[in-house]
Specification:
Layout: H1 2-37, E1 44-47, E2 52-59, E3 62-68, E4 71-76, E5 80-84
Antiparallel strand pairs: 1-2, 1-5, 2-3, 3-4
């Protein structure tokens, strides 16, 4: 009986671990992969290093990001963590 309770507790602990740690991480990874796949020329992006820029070229696993007039950085697509949405002008 004691061994059965130990196995049940172990299964419960593994289930809780999966629900609260593994599944959310997989969801975040999937969202990031979708973001990376959707990067196109003209997107405003923010990198993991906090650099804001405009995507000028997409080539396989790298992108050219313009950070200032006539200043472009070549970086890995995976360094992009956020795509800025265009701000809407108008009255609310």
């Amino acid at each position: 009986m004691q061994q059965l309770l130990t196995i049940i507790y172990l299964i419960i602990i593994i289930g809780v671990f999966y629900i609260f740690i593994i599944r959310p991480q997989q969801r975040r990874q999937k969202e990031h992969n979708e973001l990376i796949a959707g990067i196109t020329i003209g997107d405003r992006v923010i990198t993991a290093g906090g650099i804001y820029g405009l995507v000028k070229n997409v080539d396989g696993e790298t992108v050219m990001v313009e950070v200032a007039p006539e200043v472009e950085l070549k970086m890995a697509k995976t360094a992009i963590i956020l795509k800025e949405e265009p701000k809407k002008m108008g009255l609310s």
